[in-house]
Amino acid sequence: MDGILDRQKAKLKRAAKLMQILTKYGFEDFKSKLDNNSDSTDEAKIAQDSAFYERVRRAIEELGPTYVKFGQTLSTREDLFPSALIKEFKKLQDNVLPEEIDLIPHLEKELEIAVGDYFTEIDNTPIASASIAQTYVGKLQSGEQVILKLKRTGIKEIVHADLLLMKDIIELLTNYYSVVREINLLHVFDAFAASIQEELSFTNEQKNIQLFGRNFRGNPDIETMKVYPELSNDNVLCISYIEGVKINNKEGIQALNLNPEAILDKCFNLYLTQMLEHGFFHADPHPGNILVTPTGKVSFIDLGAVAKMSPNDKDLLEDFVVYFIYKDANRLVNTLKKMALHVDIKDDKLLIRAFQEMLDIINTHSLEELDIKALFSKFSHLLNENNIIMPEHIYLLVKGIVLMEGIGRELSPQINIVDKVKPYITKIATQRISPEKLLKDNVGTLWEMRRMLHSAPQSFTSIIDKFNQGEFKVSVNYREFERFRSQELRNNSLNRMLVISAVLFLGGCLLANVEQVNYQGISVISWILFAFSFAIFIKMMLKKYKLNN
């Protein structure tokens, strides 16, 4: 009970702060903006809107970390908001003044250790300060350099109170304003809330780092972070220090005597591997989160936010990428429906035509000519226009690809993205028809067949016993009897044809070693009988399936 009261108290406190800041930035006209949702291009209106959107951004910055991060999330949704507002969202920065922390006593209290037993030195000045945490550099007794990530005091309570309040506000707006309802803002918020709560947990980030490392074990192109569990908990994270330059620092990469294009090639392949093979990928691969080491390896850092896919999600994504690359709009839309959380397509043919037009743009291959960002923006607009809500990992994937495209433009504008993806398509196809994959996918069916065969004699014996004891009863619905009788006659005919197919097959087997013209050590006559047998079998099975349905 006390916990509920504390949460409500914190929410009310944040609500008071929210009202104070909204009043400060003159949000009395916010309702009129929602009521007047016109797309007028009048210059005076555009200037007025720009000033309003700037006030939105400044208010968000003052409201604190939760609102800043939500604004950053919305900055990738160009299908939902006016371009002028998106431009302001993109200005939101997650850099805040560092919190004053008495570092050594703080670590000793959190980790219940004597700092001197583990560290030879720790720099008291943070190398980075963000809304959720700030980071320090230290050195272990072993001589290894490490990063210490410390969560800000009280940040968890602030974020939770903000999320409760934000959800109330969005639900209210959704109920009263169709424009908010149409953009499915509540769905966007729910995905954001789940993401930021994962980011708040350093225990979760520790698991992400460990899984990421296992996925890339033995890969010579990547340097993964190492976690020190004995020096980590939910509020403190100790990880290995990665020395390197940002992935978009072309001059810095060249200063290390490395080829920027070769590094970009590695980076792109590693990201595709995360998406299409692991189903576990970095959710925010901006240049600050990807480093190039002096040895030419690529390192992905800051794994607080990742996207995870189930095996079925991964299979559907593979299908989607294959049809996207090979411009099959029909199958692309069908796969899209399977992937979506919600679909309300008014006209399938129009959607397929729109996707085909979009896919035709891919005929221009180079990054210099192909605007990936515009392509995915069009994709997002098509989803929104047809009220198609995708799982959050799809939006994160689109965001990741757009970020990777930006890196590509800085390092090597002529890189061919389509050619980079095609080897993965070949690999996917090969894996899908491999015996191991087929066995894995059908092991459940095989197990069920084994169970049925195992229990069949017992079931049959039970039926015979009841028949002998006069307890066996058959209930027939008269109205269905004629239809059943007619279908049974057709089934009998089909069964006779199947028997013929089996006889032909057995005949082929018996004549396999007859001395005459042969192929692959089997007589030609046998091959002919096998062919007729299989043709009849397949045809009859298809007819039987159609009748039964």
UniProtKB/TrEMBL annotation:
It holds the Pfam family ABC1. GO terms for molecular function: kinase activity. Residues 92-334 form the ABC1 atypical kinase-like domain. The keyword ATP-binding does not apply. Gene3D superfamilies: Transferase(Phosphotransferase) domain 1. The chain crosses the membrane at residues 493-513, 519-538. Keywords: Kinase, Membrane, Transferase, Transmembrane, Transmembrane helix. InterPro entries: ABC1_dom, Kinase-like_dom_sf, UbiB_kinase. Belongs to the protein kinase superfamily. ADCK protein kinase family. PANTHER family: CHAPERONE-ACTIVITY OF BC1 COMPLEX CABC1 -RELATED (PTHR10566), PROTEIN ACTIVITY OF BC1 COMPLEX KINASE 7, CHLOROPLASTIC (PTHR10566:SF113). This is AarF/ABC1/UbiB kinase family protein.
